[in-house]
Amino acid sequence: MTSTSFDAIVIGGGIAGAGTAHALAARGQSVLVCESQPHLAAKASGNARGLLMPYVATQSSPPGRLYSRGFRYTRELLHSLGPRCPFYHQSGAIQLPSNKRLVRILHESAPFCDGIVTQRISAEEASERSGIPISTPCFYLPEAGYCDPRELTANLIGSAQLPVTVRYSVEVTALTATENSWRVSLGTGEDLTSSTVILCGAYEVTRLSQTSWIPLEAIRGQTAQSFATPLSEKLKTLISFGGYITPADDGSHFIGAHYRHNDMNETPTEGDTAEVISRLYAALPSISGLTPNSSRVCFRASTHDRLPYIGELPSHDKPPLFINAGHGSRGLITAPMGGEIIARMIHKEKLEDLAESASIASAERIEKRRPRVHL
Ligand SMILES: Cc1cc2nc3c(=O)[nH]c(=O)nc-3n(C[C@H](O)[C@H](O)[C@H](O)COP(=O)(O)OP(=O)(O)OC[C@H]3O[C@@H](n4cnc5c(N)ncnc54)[C@H](O)[C@@H]3O)c2cc1C
Fold first, then answer.
1. Whose CA is nearest to atom 1 of ligand 1?
2. 42 lines ligand 1 (CB under 6 A)
3. What CA–CA distance (Å, rounded) separates 171 from 166?
4. Given this structure, which CATH class describes domain 8-45+151-215+306-369?
5. For the chain, where are the E strands, in sequence order?
6. 3.30.70.2740, 3.30.9.10, 3.40.630.30, 3.10.310.10: CATH of 90-143+217-303
7. Residue 44: CB within 6 Å of ligand 1?
8. Which residues of the chain have pLDDT under 70?
9. Sign of CA dihedral 312, 316, 321, 325
10. What are the boundaries of each domain within the chain?
11. How far is the CA of 345 from the centre of ligand 1 (A)?
């Protein structure tokens, strides 16, 4: 008979849900992950490639420190998964000065990445390092790289015989607080119970009544895969230019991504693929003649201040409700760390090296955005 009681129920089977389930199960908790789609990483975490890139700035700042800490956390996690997560490439990254902020840093001050090596390099050195002609000075981040987010998600859930159960094609439709626990109602009509629930459903967290008020916006992103040309095949590093291109694997590059508000069209369009490719050509004129072979649409979950919501949601007398969501465009480096922060909180462990990140991304800051109800 299937168990209906778990130490923790995680809602959502993307990177945030997988990272949270992994961190809890590693502490011996029985964890159920409910995923509304028929497989893991079906939405934002389902791209074939994702960048592990910290944030280039001029000085230390809370978001910069959050991203750098998350970057190191995911890197360590990937290494700890070892041969079970083979798809991780520390290719190094070339960051082109693609906006006014980066141009200013390039010309006026030293790049700063909170302990992660960031160098200003000449166009010649960039061309040598990347393997393709680059005509402008830019930044080089030798520790950056890219991975397959689907592999990362699957390996976090499936690693080392941890006590994680996944239910697929099951939507959580309602949460009801009882004295010491949550009743978790599923679209199938079943009810489950757990003292601990963690919301990892990205922007869809707002479908549950308790959290419908949380400021989360879905921002459409379309990516493209494209056959390499003899020149583009020489690309050795990933290049970030506002969008990004990865070195070719099996003859194809992964190219991302457009960024559009107020557009929930789930179907890729030829026009958007053309836009993604033409932005690449504008940034890297030495690349041309790519032939797109597939496209994909998914949605970022963006918060009111662009930082994720990680931790216990402010509530009054209910069982605690946790959230690991709103990871925007940098979920590969913030969501796994978010899972570890939540596991430490639930287990009343010291946050130690993650204390500052927990404070920067604290879900308590959403309280100020809660609509006031006047009786
Ligand atoms: C085009 C694009 C490119 C990106 N590129 C990068 C990149 O290069 N580097 C990087 O770091 N980040 C990147 N990101 C961001 C990153 O992909 C996301 O931040 C990350 O995948 C978010 O993971 P998540 O688990 O929070 O959300 P998701 O992967 O969307 O997972 C949420 C899951 O919850 C499920 N769910 C929701 N509600 C329920 C419910 N009620 N019941 C059951 N299941 C539910 C959904 O079906 C979904 O599978 C990119 C995002 C986009 C859109």
1. 221
2. yes
3. 12
4. alpha beta
5. 8-11, 31-34, 50-52, 88-89, 93-95, 119-121, 138-141, 145-147, 164-167, 172-177, 182-186, 191-194, 196-199, 216-227, 238-240, 244-245, 252-256, 291-303, 309-312, 321-325
6. 3.30.9.10
7. yes
8. 1-4, 83-86, 160, 316-317, 372-375
9. negative
10. 8-45+151-215+306-369, 90-143+217-303
11. 23
pLDDT value at position 246? 98
Task: Answer yes or no: is the C-beta of 102 below 6 A from any ligand 1 atom.
Answer: no
pTM of the model: 0.96
Contact 111, 119 (CB under 8 A): yes
Q: What is the pLDDT of residue 110?
A: 81
Query: What is the distance in A from the centroid of ligand 1 to the CA of 15?
Result: 7
Ligand 1 pocket, 48 CB below 6 A? no
Q: Is the CB of 174 under 6 A from ligand 1?
A: no
Instruction: For a ligand 1 pocket test, name from 15, 190, 197, 239 the mutation site with the most ligand atoms within 8 angstroms of its C-beta.
Output: 15
